[in-house]
Amino acid sequence: MLFLAFSVNLYCQPRIGATENQILTEFNNKKFEKGYDEEGNKWISCHNGLGKMIYYLNIENDVCLFCVLVPDNQEILNNIVQRYNEEYVIISDTEWKKYTSRGVMNILLMFKDNGYFFSYF
Length: 121
Hints:
Layout: H1 2-9, H2 20-26, E1 33-36, E2 42-47, E3 51-57, E4 64-71, H3 74-87, E5 89-92, E6 95-100, E7 103-112, E8 115-120
Antiparallel strand pairs: 1-2, 2-3, 3-4, 4-8, 5-6, 6-7, 7-8
């Protein structure tokens, strides 16, 4: 059942290079929050069924520079890692590369302050 939810709910995913408007339009069925972090970086975020997806935007042109996914729980984290191990080039236990027609996306699993998140750039 979780696999089904995982495959269906990953539609709100990283959109490196997309504008804020493109992200909001593509995922118009999601409720987004907006703000700035303590360093002044602009972000928009939504919950995608797996966790919180945060899109960090260039302030000058609102283009997504990188994304962060904070999984809701350990089971989802492990399922995401399993999927990445099957579909992407494994660089290490916590790093993958995804090659597409638009370029290369780097994916890092990071651990900080008793939590974990994926970073996409």
